Amino acid sequence: MNWYFDSSVLVAAAVRAHSHHARAAGILDELVKKKHRGYVSAHGLVEVYSVLTRAPFTPPVYPSEAWQILEQSFVPNLEVVTLSGKEYRDVIRDCAARGVAGGLVYDALHLRCAEKAGCERVYTFNVKEFRRLAPQLEDRICAP
Q1: Residues in CB range of 85: below 8 A, 6 or more apart
Q2: Global pTM?
Q3: Tens of pLDDT along 29-58?
Q4: Domains and their CATH numbers in the chain
């Protein structure tokens, strides 16, 4: 089974003090144990790095530590999905036509990557927003 991971899940899995850490880490463990195929978007990896290095976590996550987390915990277990320039334009055009504004465009990119990878599950802690953006995927979108 193909599973897609939003950056919200990966950040929670990376930070033990995060309120959703146990749930996020648990679903990643299940991915590995049950030998499912895991996916993340290229921009999702960048989002994880950005959040890890800028959020006020205690203790803070330094850039070298954030890279180490990505390299050791996520890169070996998740295939990176990329979009072409045309696919980016299509997502933005669709968002504009639907009145989707601001940071929700990043969630739309996550969803397009999940569709491209043929994922049966999309894990996120932003379930409501993801389902609003992709009602056709509603039964696939869930929190860990």
Answers
A1: none
A2: 0.94
A3: 999 999 899 999 999 999 999 999 999 998
A4: 2-134 (3.40.50.1010)
